[in-house]
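Hi P.,

Sorry for the delay on this. The queue was packed all week, but I finally got your sequence through. Input first:
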Amino acid sequence: MRALAGFAWTVRQLLALIIEEPFQISKALGG
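Then the structure:
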């Protein structure tokens, strides 16, 4: 169960990166 929670946390972190990074980059470019 603990491994599953760790896996879910990792997936959530990756999703946050995938979703947020493009916004950060576009903001940096003045978008």
